Every structure is written in structure tokens, then in C-alpha cells.
Amino acid sequence: MCLVATGHVAKGAIISIAGDSAWATSPDLTIQPAEMKVIADIVSKDKAAVDKAYAEGLYIAGQRYVLTRNDDEGIYARAGKSGVAIAAAKSAIVIGIHAENVQAGNATLVVSALADHLKKSGY
């Protein structure tokens, strides 16, 4: 994946905007169907899903992340010193997990850039 090739993202995925399928994933990243659906619900600004994620965390591949930001720019959550950046295109959601030695802002920029590219490409 081009996300991982940047060095700012350790694992990444692209899922459908409905959260019902994975379009591409890193070989060592398995996002469960229920996790994809929650991510899609948060992206669509479902208040119950957002509130639950803030209260209980956001799970990706079984890892719990603390939701720290959810706005029009995207979603960001942390698990210790690592984190996950999520950005939506028209029909896809880009997910990038970064390691603790990567600055969150760099990972977020890479994820947002790919989402922007997908938007411009009609996705």
C-alpha cells in the first residue's frame, strides 16, 4: 500500500464508506466487520456511535484506541504512543495506523492526502 511506503504509517486499510467491505489492507491488519461498521458510523456522524467511541474507545483489529478527535478533517485516536488516523472520501474510508516513533501529524497528513486523491478520482 502506498500508505505504508511513506514510512509514516505502519499498517493501513481502505474500506467502503458503508463499512461493509475492505478494499485493501496491509497483510498484517485484519479489521473485523463490526469494527468497520463502527468506523463507518462515526464517519457518517452517527451520534450514538460517536458517543460510544468517546466513552468506550474505538477498536481496530482488536486494539482499543482512545478517540481524541472527530471532525470534518477526519478521526484520530491513540493507543499509548501509537495511533490511528482515519479520513473519508466519497465512497471509501482510509485508515492508517502509525507506530510510536512516528509523529501523529505526519500519519494524519498521509491518510488525508490519500483520501483527497480518492475523492479527486471519483471514489
From TrEMBL:
The keyword Cytoplasm applies. Keywords: Actin-binding, Cytoplasm, Cytoskeleton. InterPro entries: PFN, PFN_euk, PFN_sf. It is found in: Cytoplasm, Cytoskeleton. GO terms for molecular function: actin monomer binding. Its main location: cytoplasm. GO terms for cellular component: cell cortex; cytoskeleton. It comes from the Eukaryota. Belongs to the profilin family. This is Profilin. It comes from Trichoderma citrinoviride.
